[in-house]
Design goal:
The protein is an alpha/beta fold. It has eleven helices and six strands. A six-stranded parallel β-sheet has the order 1-2-3-4-5-6. Helix 3 links the parallel strand 2 and strand 3. Helix 2 packs parallel to helix 3 and helix 10 crosses helix 11. The radius of gyration is 19 Å and the shape is globular. It is an enzyme of class 4 (lyase). GO terms for molecular function: (R,S)-4-hydroxy-2-oxoglutarate aldolase activity; 4-hydroxy-tetrahydrodipicolinate synthase activity.
Length: 241
Amino acid sequence: MVRRSRHFISKDKLLLAGSACESTRATIEMSNLMADAGADAVLIINPCYYKSAMNEETLLKYFWRVADECRVPVVLYNMPANTGIDLSVPLITKLAKHPNIAGLKDSGADVGKMAQVVHTTKGLGFQVLSGSAGLLLPALVVGCVGGINGFANTNGAELCQLISLFKEGKLEEAGELQRKIMHPNALITRIWNVPATKAVMDAGGQLYGGPCREPLAPVTKEQLKTLIEAFVKEGFLPKPK
């Protein structure tokens, strides 16, 4: 998939590939396979199956060794809702000093923490990205450089517009767009997640979502109705004919 994606996307666009595994060696191997397939950088979430053993020292050694042996830059991925582990500001700050660790995708839903990381890593060439479209504007305000957001699967243009409005200093317009994004984004991420994302992609007529991989089940008719109504209300989908 990564190799085919590299073939289809423009050469001036970065290709970021997830490559995390539960062991250090497997993560290094997968990361370099992704590099061979054309990835410009890899996104690596922390091991979490044996979460009680994943203390700060263990995680520091894990990410540091992976970054040492990975042939492309590493982007840290903090997703405490899924892993049960929240990478701390001191840990992230230490890792930011590694020359091959380029940044952080933070899905911890804590803008204050993102602000701290931006502050403590200043001058290190370390980039912080919001993992939630619902927090994109506040994240930009505190110094994040952008986002890696599920909402982009259905409405990437609107997220790019929000960033452009922020850069142009049009904060009132950016705030209005951010508020419009909130409910539709919640529906396709934390509430109904992947099945809802696929359903909205299909409903728009311009993208392909397709079926879910089991055990995920498709959205119900009632859920689909709620999704379409929410996206139409905010102008993110055309009104059904």
